[in-house]
């Protein structure tokens, strides 16, 4: 059984972006899908926790890339790896072809590749964590520079035209928040923020 995990950091992002390529990869094999919008820097993620709870020995945990599974600190990454190993899950990373052998998992070559893949996955998890730390540092530097120059800090500002259109749709009271977000090309969270301010 494939346990397919898809993640995006915020509700503004499309967590299902990679679903099609994962579906092509697994073909007609039995699969359960676990999709969430949650930061990869947190170990405690509701949908990932559900996947780990549901998983059976020798199931395959399939992710698009390591950073979809983890941008965790070293200690938290070790904890997550332990949970995966305790469940006897086989981790397959779509953009790491060497892990694809875990699907068959036969013979001494597979055991050697398992060791090599663990090292590669650890390296990729470290790179994902460092990338996240650099991104946070760059944002902080940009905010400090903007503050020193007396510029406004905190996002792109309010799109007044979008807010007015969303308010009109909300006042019509005949359309769901999800449909408004689709029609206006914005996130559901944005519609809820505007609704809260009415």
Describe, in plain words, how this protein is organized in 3D:
- This is Recombinase family protein.
- InterPro entries: Recombinase_CS (IPR006118), Resolv_N (IPR006119), Resolvase-like_N_sf (IPR036162), SSR_resolvase (IPR050639).
- Residues 1-150 form the Resolvase/invertase-type recombinase catalytic domain.
- The active site is at residue 9.
- GO terms for molecular function: DNA binding; DNA strand exchange activity.
- This protein has 198 residues and is of the alpha/beta class.
- The protein contains eight helices and four strands.
- It has helices at residues 19-26, 46-54, 66-69, 74-86, 107-148, 160-172, 177-184, 188-197; strands at residues 2-8, 31-37, 60-63, 90-93.
- A four-stranded parallel β-sheet has the order 2-1-3-4, with helices on both faces.
- Helix 6 (160-172) runs antiparallel to helix 7 and helix 7 (177-184) crosses helix 8 (188-197).
- It is globular.
